[in-house]
Design brief:
four-stranded antiparallel β-sheet, ABC transporter transmembrane region fold, 620 residues, six-stranded mixed β-sheet
């Protein structure tokens, strides 16, 4: 009997049932599902027909018994059997058709939700990703989207089916015998109440298991990445890590055994109650049949209808839990969709004048956004978002880089150099002032124009776990084989590619860890060369390289910088001696500017930084 299993599942969900929904959630759900309404109506129609057939079969079975008792012609019994078989075939067909419609609705909804969330998240600023836990965000695209899908497949169809089946079963049973129907309803609390107590216990166990599984997943994700695995090996922790993981796995195992036994005891008890209920129905029905108050076939019909009564009753007892759980999944998806991107594209963007590009900062002030502006507590997996008062990090930055010039930013760590660089491609937006490319405010340009104009090479040379070819084509999907090899040659990578058995089809590994640091950096330079930007931003592109790798990368960068405007952030001052202009940044302000020679001659902050580095050769 499926009743105990359904009741157990509903009772477990009830323990974690949400208490309420935000206003407007249901309305938004229906608005979001509007493209699927035609399929949904057909699906519900098939569900109604299936519920009607489920009640019809017991009546025909009882009719067979009555005809046998009366001694009717064999043909009558045969035709009734054929009718029962026909109903079974039709019901099977309806089940297949309903499943087809259900899957189309469910998968269509998953597609729509996932695409909407993915596209929306892609529009979020970098500050959103620096605060959000990746696993929590991925869970919205997987677990919560699947939970929302159940609202229109399992939950809605189950609600309609169970209501119709319950109403029809009760109506037919009351028509056949009100005494037997009353007995069945009197026994229902014995069937339902134990589920609540055991359900809470199993729900507590499942919640603990979920917490442990999440911890194991986090441990695996962090330790199985290349940097995490390296850290574990360097600090000699493999045995301790394995012991910690094994302890959690053991607890999950023990919880699984306890959950299985609690569920088995519960189902055994309820199956016994169900069997006793059927025995009572047969007893009372048999008595009424022997006293002439019921036909024998009616007793059989009532016994069969009893199975059609308990299942929908127990399912409907938890329908609020199912609906609320599905709606909360929608709510969690809508929570992400409602987080407005802090950086938006102008509806009627301006064109960028043709020719070489100039860069101008005009009295730029900037404060990093607060947590409530760019993030959600649930995505950071904290109870309350951080409430530190934001403070201004750039104070009136002004400078200009003419077409073809190389402007360098130097200064202490945390002075604001990388923040200045991040404002140009609009990874963040200024609070006041303006950043202009060839006289046009970057906020007035389209994102496509910005991406085509501004190229960035950072110290974190990120590559996707994909082939060298695909990592390069990410910058220019239309690039030819000749384009790829030309870019690789300019980035001093041709010998490396020639030495690889699979050449351009070699997979670089997670974040490019199969390549050395210098090779990764040169590959990002080759990618930049394919994009052909007019303005280059180099954010400490050689900061973590050894002397030999730095020499090769610098040679590749020289190729990139030809005839282009460039903004370079350099930790090693030896790399920017030839800069057209050097800006010394401290505490979010430009405190000095000039050429290498003029700043050394002044003997102020730049001269101090330069002497410090070259007095200590390892720092240079």
């Amino acid at each position: 009997m499926d009743g105990p299993r359904r009741l157990m599942a509903g009772a477990v969900r009830a323990a974690d049932a949400p208490k309420g929904l935000r206003a407007g959630t249901v309305r938004r759900v229906f608005a979001f599902s509007r493209p699927h309404w035609a399929r949904l109506a057909l699906f519900l129609g098939l569900t109604v027909l299936s519920a009607v057939l489920a009640v019809s079969s017991p009546l025909l079975a009882g009719r067979v018994v009555d005809e046998v008792v009366r001694g009717s012609a064999v043909s009558v019994v045969v035709w009734l059997a054929v009718a029962i078989a026909g109903l079974a075939v039709v019901d099977a067909g309806l089940g297949l058709a309903g499943r087809w419609q259900s899957s189309r609705i469910g998968e269509g909804l998953i597609h729509d939700l996932r695409r909407a969330v993915f596209e929306h998240v892609q529009r979020m600023p970098v500050a959103f990703f620096t605060r959000t836990r990746t696993g929590a965000l991925v869970s919205r695209l997987n677990n919560d989207v699947l939970g929302a899908q159940r609202a229109f497949t399992s939950t809605l169809s189950g609600l309609v089916t169970n209501v119709i089946q319950l109403v029809l079963s009760l109506a037919v049973m009351m028509t056949l015998s009100w005494q037997v129907t009353a007995l069945a309803l009197v026994l229902l609390p014995v069937f339902v109440l134990p589920a609540r107590r055991v359900g809470r216990r199993v729900a507590d166990l499942q919640r603990e298991a979920s917490t442990l599984n999440a911890a194991m997943t986090t441990q695996m994700t962090e330790r199985f990445s290349a940097p995490g695995a390296t850290l574990v090996k360097l600090f000699g922790r493999p045995v301790a890590e394995a012991a910690e993981f094994g302890d959690r796995a053991s607890r999950v195992r023990d919880i699984g055994i306890r959950t299985a036994m609690a569920t088995r005891w519960f189902m055994t008890a309820l199956q016994l109650v169900s069997a006793l209920a059927q025995a009572l129905v047969y007893g009372l029905g048999g008595y009424l049949a022997l006293t002439g108050q019921l036909a024998p076939g009616t007793v059989v019909s009532l016994a069969l209808l009893l199975t059609r009564l308990y299942s929908p009753l127990t399912a409907l007892a938890n329908v609020r839990v199912d609906v609320m759980t599905a709606m909360v999944s929608f709510e969690r998806v809508f929570e992400v969709l409602d987080l407005e991107p802090a950086i938006v594209e102008r509806r009627d963007p301006l064109p960028l004048p043709p020719g070489p590009v100039s860069l101008e900062f005009s009295d730029v002030r900037f404060t990093y956004p607060s947590a409530d502006q760019v993030s959600l507590a649930s995505l950071e997996e904290v109870a309350v978002l951080e409430r530190r008062d934001p403070h201004e990090v750039l104070h009136g930055i002004s400078f200009r880089a003419e077409p073809g010039e190389l402007v360098a930013l130097v200064g202490s760590s945390g002075a604001g150099k990388s923040t200045i660089a991040a404002l140009v491609p609009r990874l963040h937006d200024v609070d006041s002032g303006a950043i202009r490319l060839s006289g046009v405010d970057v906020r007035d340009l389209s994102f496509d124009t910005l991406r085509a104009t501004v190229g960035v090479v950072s110290q974190d040379s990120h590559l996707f776990h994909d082939s060298i070819r695909d990592n390069l084509l990410y910058a220019k999907p239309t690039a030819t084989e000749a384009d790829l090899h030309a870019a690789l040659a300019a980035a001093r990578l041709s010998p490396l590619i020639a030495s690889l058995p699979q050449g351009l089809d070699t997979v670089v590994g997670d974040r490019g860890y199969r390549l050395s640091g210098g090779e990764r950096q040169r590959l990002t330079i080759a990618r930049l060369l394919l994009a052909q930007p007019s303005l280059l931003i180099l954010d400490e592109a050689t900061a973590h390289l050894d002397a030999e790798s730095e020499t090769i990368v610098q040679a590749a960068l020289t190729e990139v910088l030809k005839d282009r405007t460039a903004l370079v952030i350099a930790h090693r001052l030896s790399t920017i001696r030839a800069a057209t202009k050097i800006l010394v940044v401290e505490d979010g302000r430009v405190i000095e500017q000039g050429t290498h020679e003029s700043l050394l001659a002044e003997g102020t902050r730049y001269a101090t930084l330069y002497r410090t580095q070259f007095a200590n050769p390892t720092a240079a």
